[in-house]
Amino acid sequence: MFSTDATIHPYPAGDTSLRRFAVELRSLGYDSAVATGIGERCEYEGIAFLKGTIIPGAAMKEVMRAIREDRGSSDVIMVCAGDLGFNRAVLTYPGVHILKGVHAVHRSAFDHVAARSAADRGVAVDIDLSVMTCLKGVRRQRAVERLTDVVRLSRKYGFALTVSSSAYSVLGLRSTRAVGHLLTLIGLDASEAAAVLGGVRAVVDKPLPVEVLEW
Fold first, then answer.
1. pLDDT tens across 78-106, in order?
2. Burial bucket for residue 12 (CB in 10 Å: 0-12, 13-18, 19+)
3. Is the pLDDT of residue 37 over 80?
4. In terms of DSSP bridges, do strands 42-44 and 47-55 run parallel, antiparallel, or are they unpaired?
5. Is 147 exposed, middle or buried (0-12, 13-18, 19+ CB in 10 A)?
6. Which of 25, 29, 75, 104 ranks highest by number of CB atoms within 10 Å?
7. CA-CA-CA-CA torsion sign (5, 59, 133, 36)
8. What is the CA radius of gyration of the chain?
């Protein structure tokens, strides 16, 4: 089964080259990752890198403009969650693959209507592992509770989940085995965790041939 880290940030946004990320990802059990800031889909060391674009959840008109300007060059379009009206609109707009940052918005901002739209339109909701590994105290507790709510909604309405390290460095990556353990904290079992690791493939319609880069 495919295992994809749904968001990494290689150099220049982060401090690690795509080549170094590839070596580490392969050793950690992945076969692919969604990388921001790269020019196009590529492969290195057996790791397929999909071009990802993150659109801040500011206003729907900005999301629409960003998707038009992208002109299909990105393999994965990710939009940061906002308030309820914004999320409902995003989840029905063509070209959006993943809704990110649901852990950071109010519980009511992603409700049963949004969940049904995500399922109907084939949009995944991302689980950002960095909130479990980097946040502490009350902030971490609230984020975990919010992600647990998302898991419950996913079971009920059937929308896909993805999982991302949001790593800017190889130090931020987690092995697929460790990811499985972390996902149990929000209520997922082993088989569900495996499906989440393959969640990107469930929402990206493009085929996956890649250009192999020479280094």
1. 999 999 999 999 999 999 999 999 999 99
2. exposed
3. yes
4. antiparallel
5. buried
6. 25
7. positive
8. 16
Q: What is the 3-state secondary structure (H, E, C) of 50-112?
A: EEEEEECCCCHHHHHHHHHHHCCCCCEEEEECCCHHHHHHHCCCCCCCEEECHHHCCHHHCCH
pLDDT at residue 210 greater than cutoff 80:
no
Tokens of 73: 């060059």
Q: What contacts 185, CB < 8 A, 6 or more positions away? A: 132, 144
**Distance (Å, whole) CA 95 – CA 156:** 24
Length of the chain measured in residues = 215
Tokens read off for 209: 């041939």
Report which of 67, 59, 130, 131 is spatially closest to residue 89, judged by C-alpha positions: 59
Strands 161-164 and 124-128: parallel
The domains found in the chain, sorted by start residue, are 4-204 (3.20.20.140)
Distance CA 196, CA 16 (A): 25
The tokens for 183 are 């996902």
Could you give the CA distance from residue 91 to residue 77 in angstroms, rounded to a whole number?
12
**Averaged confidence pLDDT in the chain:** 93
Q: What percent of the chain has pLDDT over 70?
A: 94
What's the token pair of residue 86? 């914004």
What are 128's two structure tokens?
A: 């950002």
Amino acid found at 17: S
Residue pair 102/123 in contact by the 8 Å Cβ criterion: no
Token pair in block for residue 77: 């379009």
Q: What is the pLDDT of residues 12-33, one digit of tens each?
A: 999 999 999 999 999 999 999 9
